[in-house]
Amino acid sequence: MDYFKAFLVGGLLCLIGQVLIEFTKLTPARILVGYVVMGVVLSGLGLYQPLVDFGGAGATVPLSGFGHLLAKGVRQAVAEQGMLGVLTGGLTASAGGIAAAVLCGLVAALIFKPGDKA
Questions:
Q1: 10-residue stretch averages of pLDDT, the chain, 118 residues long
Q2: Is the pTM of this model over 0.70?
Q3: 10 Å Cβ neighbour count for 97?
Q4: CA–CA separation, 43 vs 68, rounded Å?
């Protein structure tokens, strides 16, 4: 049942993104930034954690989950360090994921020799 819930939540988030691509003039980059901001705002309002509790990876893997992680890290760092946590909390919480993305990008660049398409 957990897989179904994750598929349902992740699929719904993808559906919303696809509808935005098809029926608005928003660029994909703006939609992706909107998803991160939406994750931060919903997490700040306390509405994203119930979605994570229900959908699991379906809610944490998309970019809205990254926004949720940033907000959660800032909240925790502010509780521990005070106002300095506003600047350090988001990066501390997401450092593992960012490092993994950079490392995977480096490995892919070394293997496939990227270049211009022209």
A1: 94 94 93 94 94 93 91 93 90 91 92 78
A2: yes
A3: 12
A4: 5
Which among 32, 31, 69 is positioned nearest to 48, based on CA atoms? 69
Instruction: Give me the long-range contacts of 95-103 (CB less than 8 A, separation at least 24).
Output: 97/66, 97/69
Q: Map tokens 């521990």 to a residue.
A: 80
Rg (CA), the chain: 17
**Residue 42: partners with Cβ closer than 8 Å, 6 or more residues away:** 48, 51, 64, 67, 68
Collapsing DSSP states into helix, strand and coil, what is residue 84? helix
Q: What pLDDT does residue 5 have?
A: 95
Residue 15 identity: L
